[in-house]
Amino acid sequence: MNKHKILLIEDDLEISEMLKKYLTTENYEIICATDGQEACDQFDNDTYSLVLLDLMIPKISGMDVMQHIRKNSVVPIIIVSAKDTETDKTLGLGMGADDYITKPFSVVEVLARIKATIRRTTQYDNASIALPVVLTAGDIKMNLSDYTLTKKGQLIELTAKEFDILKLLLQNPKKVYTKEQIYSLVWNDAYCGDENAVNVHISRLRNKIEDNSRNPRYILTVWGIGYKLGDKL
Predict the structure, then answer these.
(1) Angle, nearest 10°, between helix axes 195-209 and 86-94?
(2) What's the confidence (pLDDT) of residue 121?
(3) Cis ω for the linkage preceding 216 (within 30 of 0)
């Protein structure tokens, strides 16, 4: 079994070495970068299963590194940062991160988040090619065998969590999901009142799939409850 390769972007050498040592013992291959320029170069020259990204790094900021990655890749990104305000989290998730861990952190928590994120993104690779499953709604087609989404034949790139949220709604078109239910099912974690994470991912999804994100057809808000798939598709 091939090791999952992780790009660790962290300028604090003590933290970097601690994470590298711990994750290596868990059979991950860790490539380290200590500044934004090195991170972009490392990412462009190799293939990774996941990126761990500190926001406050020299030369090129963490946010700019994430933008660089997201131009051509939907590889999972977990932000690990001392910036812990709701604004920071919203901005990070809104720009394409899949998860956000604040410092100080437990290495056990980091490992759990890594495992959960990689599991979500790789489970589709193990699906049987002989039994493709396609979910449709309006002009949208979601192929669960190759983890792709198209609208009117045009490929739409989604992050793992965006894909899982939309999949949940497409598989249950009549059901209204609360934010707590979406968080628990997609993040595979106990809900801690962090509904902002769900709101940000829903907003990103709408920007990608809706003709008009301010007047959505595919993902409807059920005020006071949560979200559901649109009825008139």
Answers:
(1) 30
(2) 74
(3) no
